[in-house]
Amino acid sequence: MAINHIFTIEEHQTGLEVNKIYRNEYRFPVEMLVKGRKYSGVEATLNKQHGKKILMEFVLKLLSNGPKQYKYVISQMLQKFNWFDLSDALEILLLDGVIQITFKNLNPRKSVSWLPKIVGLDPRAVESLLPQQPDIDLEFIELRKSVINLTVETRNPLKKRILQWIEERKIQDQSGTLIADVTSFRKYKSVILTIAHYIYLRDRGQTVPLRYLSNQIWDHPRLLCTYKNESALAAEITLDELDSVLLNDINSTLHAPLVSISPVEELQRLVDQLLEPETSQDAILSSVSLINSYIHKIIEIVGDSENKTLNLLDYYDLHIKFTDSGSAEAELSILIDFKERIAALKKEILKIGHIRHRFEMIVLEEVGSGSFARVYRVFDPESNKIVACKILFPRTYFKQIYANDGDEYILRFKREVRLLTKELQHRNIIEVGKIQLDGSPFWFTMPLASFTLEKWMKNNRNASVDQRMEIFKQIISGIKYLHKREKYHRDLAPNNILLFETNHGLEVKIADFGLAKDTKSKSFFTGLSKRGYGQEDFTDPQQLNNLADSTHLSDIYSLGALLYYLLSNKLPKRRFYFSIMYQSVVMKAMDKRNKRYQTVYDFEYDLNECMKLDE
């Protein structure tokens, strides 16, 4: 029976062992320790048919570092679970000998009124929950092997010191001050491997996030960071030097983690494609083997123990269901059910800590921000590459800034992803990598540019006209492709033009299609948006007044502005005061709409003619 979240138990209940503590000055007992008589093991209790395994695991995790005050345990648990489930779980754990509870008597002079005081693990359960202690001698053999493999080619004097630390089983600085030893083996091993990886990566001019390294070594994202100061001290380097190789991350500042498990995401996208109206029955049947290959990859990632819990092998029955379905309607029903099962599977997999850590994007720094999204430099642990990641602001941001739920911006973001994945493939338009549109936060990755055009211009004020015009030709190439497909960018500006350094020179890619217009789209809502309508210096004045009034002529205006900016290093509003090469082309592109170039081809033709005259 529960009154005001106070756990009560019948002390004479069969299966309980009760020990009471008396004091001479009190008539009644002052404390009572209650535990279960029989103990069958933690796993046996957790796997009973009570439906409270997750709740119980949370209780055990809370108590794993020692007994806790009852009030603290309850306050923590009630943030995630309801009281009635919690009360039932505590009773089961108590009767099964997994936990024990100390009660105090509120008024031992006059009566018995028990109130729970301390909750702790039963000593019989503690042993099974403790991590297995490592074989230290074996650990040292493996540690030495790892260090030698990492430093085999280096001439760094730190190599000799690391091997000496392993020989002596302690880490000291040059003055003899002890930094770590085997009494805290985790700290000792962390410092040694952090320094060994630092040497290995620095010698090769490579970098990785410290969080990634921590996941690889300890399956824990923050553990190595705990000992970062000791690692720098032992190596006699500054924290800045260590951070230049083992990169800092800002994951803790994010609204939510960015996790993408590729086979699950690919499976979701495949099923979405199969659910599209134009998909034939033959296409559905021919895709079953591909679906099974994704499931096989998921099983490999998840592993045997979790595989049994998630029943992943059940997903292989899809081929049989399709074969027996006999109709398109039945196949559609099967696919809809399968889609729901995948979504549920994804949620369960993300609860498995080591898998979530393995696939979580590691965010290094912010590189840009717009009206409804931010772009970050991130490390993708699956590909071991640093990429860019565009993340839509959370709904709380839109409520605070715009007093709405951000539905308009979610539509824009999804439209941008659709355009870049399904409709636009061109060497001068940015491509998308991983995508997450299944719940907040929405995000996608793309190649990380060497510069934006804005940054390149600041760093290359003495660049030749040929270099500048080569950049502009690639911009025009991308816009011609876009307009040919009846789509308009509507936000062409220096920070949306990305430059990539390659062996063949600079490669230009147009990015940020959040304002892009698709003339074939039926979306009326985003077309009437009044916010985020472009960057004033490079935006068609009529578009600034009304985004819905933008056309392909808006992009031509922006092209003229970009040409002036490229050739003058000045904002296009200065065009009336400082003339440049091809000034006539700029002025016509930025003229009133009825006097402006009517197509990007007309613009390009005039520009080419002017360039021929200068040859």
Automatic annotation (TrEMBL):
The keyword Transferase applies. One of its GO terms (cellular component) is cytoplasm. Pfam families: Pkinase (PF00069). ATP binds at residue 390. One of its GO terms (molecular function) is ATP binding. Residues 361-615 form the Protein kinase domain. Keywords: ATP-binding, Kinase, Nucleotide-binding, Transferase. The keyword rRNA-binding does not apply. Gene3D superfamilies: Transferase(Phosphotransferase) domain 1 (1.10.510.10). PANTHER family: OVARIAN-SPECIFIC SERINE/THREONINE-PROTEIN KINASE LOK-RELATED, PROTEIN KINASE DOMAIN CONTAINING PROTEIN. This is Serine/threonine-protein kinase.
